[in-house]
Structure formats: structure tokens, C-alpha cells
Amino acid sequence: MISKAQIIRDGAVAGALGASTVALWFLIFDISRGTPLETPALLAMALFYPHGAHVALLPAALEYSVVHLIAFVLFGISSAIFVEAAERKRSLLPPLVMVLAIFEVLFVAVVMLLGHELAATLSWWSVLVGNLLATAVMVAYFFGRHTNLAYQLFGPWFQVWEEGAAAGMIGGSMVVMWFLLHDLGSGSNPFRTPAILAGALLEGAHNPASIAVSSPLVLGYTVLHFAVFIAFGVIAACMAASLDEPLLWTAFLLLVCVFQTFFVGFAPLLSGVLGDQIGSTTIVAGNLLSSVAMLGFFYLRRTTLHLRSAAPGETAKAT
């Protein structure tokens, strides 16, 4: 049993870590746009000064930071109470997951309700990314403090997830390197391709000429890019860890094929939106390279794949 004081302390620390993560993300995002502290200042003006009153940047950012920290600490303490209770009673896990989901939706809803002026100056996805990063940090902290709960929930799958995340990072890095080499080879800005993709996916741009290469766009696309690849890597690793049955091996290969088909179908659609700025072959080639790299990683890491690839040869020698 954990004392109430310890639960409150753990929740407060988790909340402070989450708030610091969001603040750091906002700072990096604003610096990349050349306007440090703009995001918290804009949020403060929308929350506390709805009539368009002019407030200095630093005081507004400090006001929002105080409210921001208090909100996260309160949420952290509430989550700590749920986590401690869930460790004793597993039936409370669904409500805990619901609390996390509500926390994610709340931030998006707040941004949508803050008005059109704020929406024009503050990217909704920047707030969502910051919130997702904060949630990941808080979940990692709670699992670190409650290892028994983490083991009861996931057991040895933690190692599988780590392997999948590593595979996703490798695959995502291959695409990033391919885009960089492609842009350098074409004589354009080295970050032209991720900026155009970010403009289409995150900002809803339909005219490629209106998309300027900027650090926020490149930063936002990079986060989304690696999140997708890590998610796919984790799914693939979970299936690769269960290759004892031929059906699961077939399912693993089908998963790779679905991943390829998605990008092959996605590339022409994106080209129709952005014209000739990004060729379909550029995206498809990058995806093929990433898939080869990820399959190679799984082949080298998992002895099951080695045994399955060597089995036909051994069978032939035996006969």
C-alpha cells in the first residue's frame, strides 16, 4: 500500500513533468518561428483577455504558465489516484484509459473554442503534439513508479514494443534521409519535401506555391512522420514476436503489404493535391527503402525469422 502523501507527491511530479514537456515543446516551436513565448501568450490572451486587450508578451506567457502548471498538477494527482487504485483492482483500468482519452480531447476542444483569431495564428496540431508528448512522459513516469502494474498489464511485451519502436525509428530515418537526398539532388531547399507534405497534411494547403519552407512545418511533419512509423513498427514487432504459427507469419507479411499499398495509394492522391511539387515515385521509393530497412532489422533481431528462412534449405539437405 502506498501512503496518500506519496500518491499526491507522485501525481504532482507527474503533472509537473507533463507541464514542463508541453512548455518545452511550445518554446521549441515558437523559437523555430522566430517568436519565443508566442504560443503561451496567445493562449493567455484568449483565456483571460477575450476582448482583444493588448498585453505584453512575457507577462501573458507567465500568467498562462501558472495556470498551465496548476492544471497539469491537478490532473497528475487525479491520475495517480486512479493508477494506485488500478494496481489493486484491475477493473478500474478502463476508467483510467477514459481519463487519458478525455484529457487528449480536452486540449483540442479548448483550441477549437478559443476563437477564429487564435486559430489563425496558432496551429491546432502544435497544441495536440505538445499534449501527446506530455501524456507519454506522464505515462512513462507512472509505469516507472508502478512497475508491478506495468508488468501485470504488459509483461514481456515491453521488450517487444522497444524493438518495434527501434524498427520504426530506422524506417522513419530512411525516409527522412531519402527526402533530404532527393531535395538536395534537385537543387531545391533540403527540407522542401517535408515542408510541402506538412502544408498539405497539417495546414490543409491545396496550392503548393503558397507553402513556404519553414521550421514549424518541418518540425510538425517530422513528429507526425516518426509517430506513424513507430506505431507501425510496434504493430509489426508484436506480430513478429508471435511467429510460431504459419497463419501469424502470413499475417505479418500481409501487414507489410498493406503498409506498402497505403503509401502507393496515398502518393497519387497527394500528387493530385500538390501538383508536380512532389512526384509519386519520391514517396513510394522512400517507403520501399524504409520497409526494406525495417524487414532487415527484424530479420537480424529475431531468431524466429532466421529459423524460418533457413528451414527450407535444411530440409532440402536432409532429403
Q: Mind explaining what this structure looks like?
A:
- It contains 13 helices and no strands.
- With 319 residues, the protein is an all-alpha fold.
- It folds into two domains: 150 residues, no CATH class; 157 residues, no CATH class.
- The chain is flat, with a radius of gyration of 23 Å.
- The chain starts with a helix and ends with a helix.
Layout of SSEs?
Elements: H1 4-32, H2 38-48, H3 57-88, H4 93-113, H5 116-121, H6 124-145, H7 147-154, H8 157-185, H9 192-201, H10 215-240, H11 246-274, H12 280-301, H13 303-318
Helix pairs in contact: 1-3, 1-6, 2-3, 3-4, 4-6, 6-7, 8-10, 8-12, 9-10, 10-11, 11-12, 12-13
Give a quick account of the main beta sheet: strands, pairing sense, barrel closure: none
> Mean pLDDT, rounded to whole units?
76
Proportion of strand residues: under 5%
Q: What overall geometry do the principal axes of the alpha carbons give?
A: flat
- DSSP, total strands: 0
Helix amount? over 70%
The CA-CA distance between the termini, in Å, is: 62 Å
The overall number of domains is 2
- Cα-atom Rg, whole angstroms? 23 Å
Low-confidence stretches: 315-319
Helix tally equals 13
Structural class: mainly alpha
The succession of helices and strands, N to C, reads HHHHHHHHHHHHH
